[in-house]
Amino acid sequence: MIEVKDLSFAYSNAKVLDNISTTFAQGRIYGLLGANGVGKSTLFKLLCGLLTTKCGEINIDGYSPADRMPGFLSRIFYIPEDFEGPDLSIKNYVGGISSFYPKYDESLLNSLLNDFDIDINRKFTSLSLGQRKRAILCVALAMNTEYLLLDEPTNGLDIPAKAEFRKMVAKAMDDNRTIIISTHQVKDVENLLDHIMILDKRCVLLDKSVADIQSEYVFEVTMHRPEDALYYEEGLGGYCSISKNTAGEESRINIELLFNYINSKK
Amino acid sequence: MEYSEHKPIYLQNVDLMQEKILRGDWREEERIPSVREMGAMVGVNPNTIVRSYQLLEVAEIIYNKRGLGYFVKEGAVARIKDNMKKEFISNELPQFKAKAEMLGITKEELLKLL
């Protein structure tokens, strides 16, 4: 369980997170959404101890990430958006870090790399951006950490790799894990998410499970302008709208529309 | 697999599973993939897949053998067809009828086409 309390962070020239409080529970895959610059990547870096702040608290299973205790670091893996990778083969890189991750699973790594068609002897620096992202994702999943933070994981992946990515993450998910995916490419990951969090600089705008969102709202596409809609957008196929779910209908969440609705209310 | 825009994912997964049973990919009294295996197959969150399994269990299409996993229940094919028939009669048929009336297609014309 990750507990964030009254967290603030500012770079020398800009304040990003301002008094944010939230929690991330086990056994869930969170979609962390938010406009550019609200501090999603900063939050990730604070959660894994790469950044520290004096304002606010983070408690992850009794650890404070800023202390960088080995017992904590072995439980979390973070993949930044622009992962460069060292000038090492995947094999040597894993050889170097795997002893810090007690649940590392070598056979899982091999099967994941195989699924993604990546040679373990290739150097990160010899791989394209998409291949590098796939390689580090395989490494991250094989480390079997309780917490996995993925920043824009599908950026740079080709179309088949995106589907493969979803399968891998779905396969890796279990009740002891918490996976947080920060993304603007909602369509790439929406089937994976069971919880949606929309972040703004000064607060968490939305923090709800997919099931709760479905029972609260109805998402529709209609030819006519919707009467009682909370929010709608006009597009080629008609009006996409969100309304209160009064009849117990079940519809598929349109995350982009939900995002625009929530942001329009603030 | 592609997901349509409007139906919740867990219901689309129910459709997929029922189709597998109807096609005979999964036979009655045979074990079906676990929730996690199914999630990995289609790239969907296992918690979403759990909802599909629960629905199919309540509908007596599948059942859980403790420690062994999920199995297709005896008579599942007949039950699925029966449910689909009811659904067809109450949802699709009225829409079809309304459209045929709107276009002025007579019963005789329709019967000939069928």
The gross shape of chain A turns out to be globular
In DSSP terms, counting alpha (H) and pi (I) runs of 4 or more, how many helices of chain A? Answer: 9
The spatial strand order of the largest sheet of chain B comes to 1-2
H-E string of chain B? HHHEEHH
> What is the CATH T-level topology of the largest domain in chain A?
Rossmann fold
Going by CATH, the architecture of the largest domain in chain A would be 3-Layer(aba) Sandwich
**Strand pairing plus helix content of chain A: what structural class?**
alpha/beta
Measure the end-to-end span of chain B: 31 Å
What's the architecture of chain B in CATH terms? Orthogonal Bundle
Oligomer category: heterodimer
Please characterize this protein's 3D structure.
The complex is a heterodimer of chains A (266) and B (114). Chain A is of the alpha/beta class. Chain A has helices at residues 40-47, 70-73, 90-97, 106-115, 129-142, 159-172, 186-189, 210-216, 255-265; strands at residues 2-10, 15-24, 28-34, 57-60, 76-79, 147-151, 178-182, 195-199, 204-209, 217-222, 231-235, 238-244. Chain A has 2 domains: 2-202, Rossmann fold; 212-265, no CATH class. Chain A has 9 helices and 12 strands. The mean pLDDT of chain A is 92. In chain B, α1 packs across α3 and α2 crosses α3. Chain B is built from 5 helices and 2 strands, in the order αααββαα. Chain B is mainly alpha-helical and 114 residues long. Chain B has one domain (9-113): Orthogonal Bundle (Arc Repressor Mutant, subunit A). Chain B has helices spanning 9-23, 35-42, 46-58, 76-102, 107-113, and strands spanning 62-65, 69-72. The model of chain B has no long low-confidence stretch (mean pLDDT 91). Helix content of chain B is 61%, strand content 7%. At the A-B interface, α6, α8 and β10 of A face α2 and α3 of B.
